[in-house]
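@channel anyone free to eyeball this complex?
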Amino acid sequence: MKDDLKKLYSAIIKEHSATPFHFEKPGKVKNTIKAYNPICGDRFEVYIGSDERMVNALYFHGYGCAISKASTSILVKTLEGKSRKEALDLCDQFLRFINKELGSNEVMLSDDFLAFSGVHDFPERYDCVLLSWREMKKFLESGAVATKTLRN
Amino acid sequence: MTLALKSLKSFFPIGASNPKTIAFTKGATESINIVAHGYLKKNLKKGDNVLISAMEHHSNLIPWQQVCEETGATLEVIPVNEDGELVLKKLNTQLNHRTRLVAITHISNVLGTINPVEEVIAAAHKKNIPVLIDGAQSVGHYPIEIKKWDADFLVFSAHKMFGPLGTGVLYCKDEFAAQISPLNYGGGGIKNVELSNTVFLDYPHNLEAGTANIAGVIGLGAAIDFIQQLDMNETTRHTGELSTYFMEGLRSLGNGRRVGNPKNSGSIISFQIGSIHPHDVAGFLAGSNIAVRAGHHCAQPLLESMGVPATVRVSFSIYNTRDDVYKTIAGLVELKKFWS
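replying in thread with the prediction:
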């Protein structure tokens, strides 16, 4: 197995794709974002509980490759509990990091995010990594307010 | 262009002996769109129907769906069973006095199923219904017998038969040639132009508005010259043998599963490896320079009916060897180990 493939499928990515975080449809859903790639058919729904200030709760469900699933899992795990401003900043940094506009030393991102650096050898997989992040960024930028909580 | 046409003429020794039946297009997709919008639409009325199958590539589905939507006609569908074969027991009912055209693929681009096109054409012709055959997966790889089949339209793409991208063919019987109108207008394709009126050339030259894709057509001609040197029976024997060898290997993996199981199959095989996503399988194999395709293969309704969102697809050609198959299976063994 080639080194670039090993780097792409790092331990963090394998773990998140095997046991994704909050991978379920919560009972009380009023606001979702749909992340869909019509070229490959990957499709996730991210369920959002938020108010004007905070991203209170995040869950997701759907179908996608290991890369898109792990990246959505990390999105859910990382952005839950963040203020909308912090969440938007993380989305922005991550998108710019993957798109090589910022280097790893220029971003304040955890190892979970940096685990995706292996994708830089596979530009055809950028869409997999960014599938849910692009939609989440749009949601946060829109200022839309979702249900405050996803649980009674 | 003339040389390419000469190659095509001898390529279809009987059915296309008349060059007036062959138009060069951008590919099978454009060929189908020409038939849908340049021929069928003007004959289609509310209450009419078009019959396709549930295993069509989007290019042999959307054009018909759209003309039906525009005219108020209905799109009828021949179902596919769990093995990935056409269910033809209700064909005679599905073909009715309001059916204006049947459009089916010769070989499924997803499952490899070889459809009994001759049987479908015969049933349709009993009711005077014309039939279009999508030969994108078969021309250049399997014997095509236009005259025996009595197909009314045949479409195919150069890039699926060792030729260049963006080039293809629309073949139609003489009797339909005069009924095909162009989709594009411009320089070329005309006999005479006045400010108030244009007189067009006859088919196929009426489709030649704009600058012709000369390099593409010459490439297609060269591909056909090459294919003519092949013994088509030997070609299908070779690719069939590789498919059998691959299936033995797939079964030996334990968690390998072919999607569909058509009795009459070409050398196209869709499969899944456990719950590993097809893109992860394809990316892994690509690391060993093994090119397979992953995704819905532009046949979303078919995949939905087979209960899978995506598959990995291998397809074998004359240049593949048993060693290629062996390396593919070895790659899948390594993949399985990596994800275990």
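from a first look: The mean pLDDT of chain B is 93.
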